[in-house]
Amino acid sequence: MTEYIAAIDQGTTSTRCMIFDRAGRVTSRAQEEFEQIYPRPGWVEHDPVEIRDTVRRVTAAALSKADLTAADIRAVGITNQRETTVVWDPETGRPYHNALVWQDTRTDRICADLAVDAGIDRFRAQTGLPIATYFSGPKIRWLLDEVPGLRLAARQGKALFGTIDSWILWNLTGGPDGGLHLTDVTNASRTLLMDLETQDWASEILAALDIPREMLPEIRASSEVYGNARGALAGVPIAGILGDQQAAMFGQACFETGDAKNTYGTGCFLLVNTGAEPVLSRNGLITTVCYRIAGQPAVYALEGSIAIAGALVQWLRDNLGLIDDAAGIEKLASTVADNGGVYFVPAFSGLFAPHWRSEARGVIAGLTRYANRGHFARAALEATAYQTREVLEAMEIDAGIRLASLKVDGGMVFNELLMQFQADILGVPVVRPQVTETTALGAAYAAGLASGYWESQAELRANWGEDKTWQPGMEAGRRAELFGGWKKAVERTLGWVEP
After folding, report:
1. Helix axis angle, 108-115 relative to 136-146, nearest 10°?
2. When you count CB atoms within 10 A of the terminal residue's CB, does the N or C end of the chain come out lower?
3. Distance CA 26, CA 22 (A)
4. Which of 195, 81, 210 is nearest to 137 (CA)?
5. CA torsion 326→361→439→418, rounded to 10°?
6. Over the chain, what is the mean pLDDT?
């Protein structure tokens, strides 16, 4: 009997289930978008129950499309939007509040209070992270402070916290009827609560944030058998969990020190493998766990996290009606030869790496009567490439390496204009793999290794193949001129929100 590996990919705007064969090829997929909730400016929420239900539907649909059953699946992996925070009642399975999404900025006051004496790097030596609204710890604190009765419930064991992986795993393994309350080390490393060295919850940080340890999940490896699923995948081992960007590293076979990739999704995330020792950044990057295979030491990474990439295209579509669909952005941008002097800095949730300025807000700069819709579209695409260059420059300094090329994946890598401009503004080749669904593929790989479907990482590396490479063609002077304009535009975003 031919067997397959399934992956549940729970992202910021949609949920997918993908089924892969031994060569890492997609056999079946199903995807469903869900509601984005914006209660106030800077606040972003998801309905955890809607997310749970989309997981159930897409899993069943992916099996049905390929005429498969649970008996055909060797194992399933989970990958997820990171930092997004859910707290729920283990007796009923009901969330106490909507999930606070990683983009949400409502915890800015909590973060400012934490940083008042020692600055935003107060916990960096232990966690690898600055104090920022991005991470889960301050979001948990906000929920404990603002949801009536929640703090008492947490201390009594009647409230569980999880990033989305934990919420999915708990529901897949039974929910109130014996659901497993676990997370993996990559997701735990995004909470601002985990010690990078011990890979356990840091008691002193929990005390500083007044978060009861009782509500936190157990931290496990990224590739191991956790338990068996119920529902459409009944009896199938759940054997891999990776935060989405770490999953993309795994899917791109970035297993060697110095391997790097950039994922272009809702946000944009550039990671470089730094090996068995964490490297603390001095240039605005995040130190994070890249992955940990059961029985082996953790592998670490440096990460540059950009909040808004594909989300800006979505914003132009949904909020301004500038395009009818996401694919229309390239066609509109191609109506002009360049950006016409227009720069779009999408600091909708503040600026993430390498700036970490939560008070920044979005700016469109350089407008003249010459500017038109095409220049807006082109500036929106170029914003992702400029942000990537900022992060890459910081990464090369911190890691002490010079990238010869950049592996890319994610939904935006089929935008030819963007990929060519990315190569031009970086001055290095940009390489797209044959399988671009690397986030789901990475979760599948982790589950497949733990279940024996694949025997080694070398076997996974052999699956990787190049699809297309974009070579840089821009003159150095023009590259410097354009990037200089971007840096001036970024300066205009700073200090917009008053303390």
Report:
1. 110
2. N
3. 10
4. 210
5. 50
6. 93
